[in-house]
Model the fold of this input.
Amino acid sequence: MASKTEQILQALHSLLKAIPSATVLRNFALPTRIPADGLIILRDGDPGEPEQSLGGVGGCYYQHAVEIEIIVQHGDAAQRQSQFDDLLMTIASALDADSTLNGLIFGMTYGRPAIQLEHEEGAAPLLGGIIELTLDYETSSPIS
Done:
């Protein structure tokens, strides 16, 4: 059986994979080719140090920082920006629709990503950003 942390990350990955028209990966290096409909990469991030209740009775509480990287590639600037914004809004809708990942977490917080534009000679520019997502949850022990 997977640890609670792994169950949460799998649930988040499944939630993102349900987004139509984008390729979703987990903990992958940036590929040399970006799919036409955009790319979403879930990065497991850092669970941080657990907070334990006084006296060591009860579970361990985490505020786990994960990253959702979004990348689109298109030669037309307006189309690239529109595609990025559409993908961003679709991700936000999916996160808001299941903010507890079917009860696995207490909730999540996130904000709009900083945008980066990158251009490599001979290729259409890349537009990307990273959504920093904080997942609040409890486990029965620091390693479960």
Observations:
- The first helix runs from residue 4 to 17.
- The domain at 4-139 is CATH 3.30.70.1700 (Alpha-Beta Plaits).
- The radius of gyration is 17 Å.
- The CA atoms of residues 36 and 73 lie 7 Å apart.
